[in-house]
Amino acid sequence: MARYFHGKEVExxxxxxxxxxxxxxxxxxxDAVYFGGPSLNMRMMRKGYxxxxxxxxxxxxxxxxxxxxxxxxxxxxxxEHDMEDARQYLTFIHQAKPDAIIVQDFAVLSLIKEMGLDxxxxxxxxMNVHNLPMIEFLxxxxxxxVVASREMDLQTARYLQAKSGMEFEYFVHGDMxxxxxxxxxxSSMIFGMSSNRGQCMKPCRWEYRVKKDGCVYPTExxxxxxxxxxxxxxxxxxxxxxxxxxxxxxxxxxxxxxxLINSYGDAIDRYIEDPIGYNRSENSQELFEHRKRDFSxxxxxxxxxxxxxxxxxxxxxxxxxxxxxxxxPTPERDIQEDRLDVIRTSLATIHRPEAASRELSVRVNNxxxxxxxxxxxxxxxxxxxxxxxxxxxFTRQEIVELTAMKxxxxxxxxxxxxxxxxxxxxxxxxxxxxxxGIDGIVVTNIGAxxxxxxxxxxxxxxxxxxxTNNQSAMFYNEHGLSRFTASIELPLExxxxxxxxxxxxxxxxVHGSPVVMYLELDLYENTEVxxxxxxxxxxxxxxxxxxxxxxxxxxxxxxxxxxxxxLTTAKELCYLPILPDLIQAGVRHFRVEGSTYTPEQxxxxxxxxxxxxxxxEQCAALYEQRSPVYAGYTLGTLSFGKAVQEExxxxx
Length: 652
Known about the structure:
By secondary structure, the protein is an alpha/beta fold. Helices cover about 30% and strands about 20% of the residues. The chain is built from 21 helices and 29 strands. Strand 6, helix 5 and strand 7 form a beta-alpha-beta unit.
């Protein structure tokens, strides 16, 4: 089965959570169905869902007999202990011959090539594909379709599709995340449950208050996205070059999914049959009456602002399938001595030679911080690409000034996390400057690695690349990274496994407030739209910064030069007590996330870590002498052993 409009293929892609649902869905008015297998997909949390190997083979056979396609979601991040499972699963998929698999982790691409398998690959929305260099690289790697970033508008999709010729898949209906794909780490920090591994406990659905400038605002659910609904915009989707119209809902029940598929299928057919006389709103009311939350067109037609946020029913259970909530406000874990003992024991199992030298790196937000880092003899200084207000981006003159005075330090430009075509033009122009004097760049997406490797300067991968296994690290290394930064989401067991297996130089974040939500949504807009309901100062950061507040604490939110928001941990990550153990385990590169500190605070932190790396036996005393700048110290995801795939708390 295939649909075409004016020579363009139009595919309606339906979800199926179980084999029973698949058998119903494949008979509906869809062209293709996507589903997960018994492992390594993003929907492993609900018991009894996903398909067995035998059911996958039957599903593919049924679909192909009907002239329809099947796509398997192998879209999880992979840890070291998953590798053998991944190899076996890929061997099975190669033999079963689905029409494609949907992939997040570059380790899967690497394994397919290494094993010589014939498998079509689509990039998952969790790859966060959002610029032309990313698409060009994926095409070179054999990827035949990209699932567009959730924040990509249809005009951008049209441009990128026309320039690249790549097939585009676009979410048209269902549950959406507020945070950029694969850039949400808060569930890991609080629960040890990674949203990038399908274990999200949905802190974005908590009730919060926004606080700024000493005022409290009645926002209620400032991170809770409405459900996507593009039912009335079939013409615009087709005109934008979208090939596949994707409905979210692998955890939805059969009746609800069937209703959605038939509604969208009927609308597409009506438009193809009679585009001039097409009635956009026909049957639209049925979708509204059966909604789980209120609706939005999300980013399809540009930034939606606060209209993206669901201000009704969140947390009450009214529009949840089961009437339950995912989780309740929970603080980040403090550092406990018994936990430190567990971590030390785990790290002691790693048999790698201790590094002969240790190097300290720091991300800085302004020239004053950078000068402090130079004075403190920091080995690597990363000039932030996403700069938090009120600071402004580093000017060319400031960069030249810093590189002229850097001494033994090395200056790297850190790139923005999300990069448009304009950003690539700007950075390419800057990197061509002969007198810039930088020593390298910190890359945040595969497109930047692909575009800028021609300059022949060292490139370090940032932690938002989410490297969780050595296969992925080697993939990035083969394509130009000199070292990578380990994902900040790894619980202890997976962190230990990665450290044991890595053959590529690895950096770890050991101190600071890493960004755990990276948002296109501007939370600061709440303070401009709503009237304050109370007065209260921020507890740990200056009142000029917005915080999200629950009864368990306050998370600072910083706004960058693009208007994007960076929500950080409430407590400071601090690995100082386990620094000697990391050194003995062979770690050489240690990073401080320094952008949020004053120059004086940063100097103290850098001085402490420099002393600790020179004399690890002093770490305990140095730790006792320090006091946290923010709400306390935390070990982040090392507070957890191994995230367990548990039965879901609720269904979206």
